[in-house]
Amino acid sequence: MKRRYFLTASTSGLALAAIGTPLPLAAQPRGVLRRVVATELTSLDPQRPTGQVTADLAAELFCGLTTTDAAGRVVPGCASAWETSADGLIWTFRLRKRLAWSDGKALDARDFVFTLRRYLAPETGAAQATRLDAIVGARDLRFGRTLPTSLGISAPDPQTLVVRLEHPDVELPINLALAYCIPEHGLKRYGREWAKPDLIVSNGPYRIESWAAGAKDLKLFRNVRFHEAGSVAIERVEWLTGYDDATRLRLFKLGQADVASLEDRTNLELARRELAPLLRSSQECVLGAIGINITRKPLDRPALRQAISLALDRNVLAGKVRGLGEQPWDAVLPPGIPQYPALTRAEFASQSMSRRIEKARKLVAEAGISGRVKLGVGFPTSPTGRKVFLAVAAMWKPIGIDLELLPLDGRAYTAALQRGDYDLFSYSSFAVVPTAANFLERFMTDSAENVTRYRNAQYDQWVREAGKQPSIVARHRGYSEAEKLLLRDVPLIPTWAGVSNRLVAKRVRGWVDHPGHAHPSRFLSLV
Fold first, then answer.
1. Residue of 114, 470, 453, 518 lying closest to 292 (CA atoms)
2. Is it the case that residue 203 has pLDDT exceeding 60?
3. CB-count burial class (<10 Å; 0-12, 13-18, 19+) for 86
4. Dist. CA 377–CA 385, nearest whole Å
5. Whole-number Å distance between alpha carbons of 236 and 218
6. CA distance 375 to 384
7. Buried-most residue among 23, 140, 197, 522 (CB within 10 A)?
8. Spatial CA neighbour of 201 closest among 225, 219, 179
9. What residues are paired with 246 via a beta bridge?
10. What single DSSP character describes residue 336?
11. How far apart are CA 294 and CA 287, in angstroms?
12. Quick one: pLDDT band at residue 425, thresholds 50, 70, 90?
């Protein structure tokens, strides 16, 4: 990566942030829930999520055949029930009666036919489209080899959707929860403009009141045409996006925010001292790691990737540098996946750091590297990110690695990540509904989320064959083999296992801690 590009992009982002700094917020309106987060909102199109806020907001605005409840479990959404054939190859979903879009237009099974065809179309680029590869014709559609009409989805009547599979998929209801329904009539009328705030229609618990691209304040109000509108207690929700950690804490202390995420050690310690009764710290199914662009020399040499993984002191990074209550971690899957057997751990997990450093030096030599190696690491601009990679740089110096820190603001970082403009990069993955597939399928050759550029035909086969198994237990056995390949080939360096730290105001009721990422506002109420 060129240093000039990173510095230019970073400086431009900081300038824009300064220009666009919002005025102080008005007093907290009565009956309005305010949620403040670090990530910027990039799109209202639920099939093109690019960050955590977008994923959170998809559940505010849209609903799929299935959805998640307050505890993160998959439950009926637009479908009231479903059944499968004896061989597990045909799934029949029965839609709720009188479903409607927020503009009053009827919503039926044909909308889901359109939704799934678009979700799997290559031009859409849905991040987790591979999760639906079990559907007849899905893989060919993703690669543009067939027309959308060849997909194994049909609507024999307005209340029935039939999904035909090439092989059984016991997690299909989970995978469909993220395939949010989108309005065919909106896309036909407005094309790519359909997701603009003044044009968008939705079928979830809320609809858009106001938002502009680049703005930090997204206002929602209750969608009276949502199929369970009567259970949505909060009339209005405001999402405040793109605020730094200190500002999020300050807004909460001033009573101008009801829910605030904390991702910096200093502010978390302050919250622990001053706001302990309102702090919710819970295990979340999140993996924090350092990603490796394995197409970049000399990182295309497995021995070098193994060496830098060995030389990383995870106890120091998680416990002393980040200090957010996370676990030091060396497995490629995080804890919190239901029914998953013992996770495969790295072989060096029980070895002393001195022994690991000695072995790392030998691996660097085996990789044919003489002299010092300079690598650049990209990460979203933040105090925590800088502290982490300064510590990593110190850990790698003894094995001959010099690390250049290349921070970028949110959107610029995401764009650079997709282009591959890095050697190493900050990598974290989370699950709306925790499954092993959510984390492992990201490293398949044809995954849109495979930003490491990892290519291994055996790995692809292990993951695909595991996904065909008729039970969760059998599926997990196959995934354990894929775990071993990732640990051997090292396209990423697992570092910590996640904890979410949020401040939740006393007046908020209904918050449930669980390992999944999403906590939709529809399940909350205000006192």
1. 453
2. yes
3. exposed
4. 11
5. 11
6. 20
7. 522
8. 225
9. none
10. -
11. 19
12. very high
In a domain, 183, yes or no: no
- Beta strands 401-408 and 259-261: pairing type? unpaired
Residue 198 lies in a domain: yes
For residue range 324-349, what is the model confidence (pLDDT) as tens digits? 999 999 999 999 999 998 899 998 98
Q: How far is CA 253 from CA 208, 237, 259, 319, 487, in A?
A: 27, 19, 11, 26, 43
Are 25 and 256 contacting, i.e. CB atoms less than 8 angstroms apart?
yes
Residue 124 lies in a domain: no
| Number of residues in the chain | 527
Q: HSE-up of 309 (CA within 13 Å, CB side)? A: 30
Range of the domain at 193: 31-62+188-282+501-526
Given a cut of 80, whether residue 244 has pLDDT beyond it is: yes
Q: Which of 399, 447, 384 is nearest to 131 (CA)?
A: 447
Q: How many CA atoms lie within 13 A of 307 on its CB side?
A: 26
In contact, 26 and 219? CB cutoff 8 Å: no
CB atoms within 10 A of CB 213: 10
* Residue written as token pair 């709306």: 432
Question: Residue 70 corresponds to which tokens in the numbers above?
Answer: 């307050």
Q: Tell me: the pLDDT tens digits for 357-415?
A: 999 999 999 999 988 999 999 999 888 999 999 999 999 999 999 999 999 987 788 88
* Closest by Cα among 329, 325, 324 to 346: 329
* CATH number of 259's domain: 3.40.190.10
Which positions ≥6 away from 220 have C-beta within 8 Å?
60, 61, 206, 207, 208, 209, 236, 237, 238, 239, 521
Q: Give the bridge partners for 81, in sequence order.
A: 94
Name, in order, each residue with C-beta under 8 angstroms of 315's C-beta and a sequence gap of 6 or more: 328
What is the distance between the alpha carbons of residues 419 and 116, in angstroms, rounded to a whole number? 27
β-strand pairing of 259-261 with 492-504: antiparallel
40 close to 51: Cβ distance less than 8 angstroms:
yes
Sequence-ordered alpha helix ranges (H) in 318-453: 353-366, 383-396, 410-419, 436-440
DSSP state of 106: B
Residue 265 lies in a domain: yes
On whether the CB atoms of residues 407 and 381 are closer than 8 A, the answer is yes
Q: Which residues pair with 32 in a beta bridge?
A: 236
Q: What is the mean pLDDT of the chain?
A: 91
pLDDT tens-place string over residues 57-83: 899 999 999 999 999 999 999 999 999
Are 326 and 387 spatial neighbours (Cβ–Cβ below 8 Å)?
no
Kindly state the DSSP code that residue 123 receives in the 8-state scheme.
T
The answer to whether the peptide bond before residue 383 is cis (omega within 30 degrees of 0) is: no
What SS3 class is residue 168? coil
The number of domains in the chain is 1
- SS3 (DSSP) at 438: helix
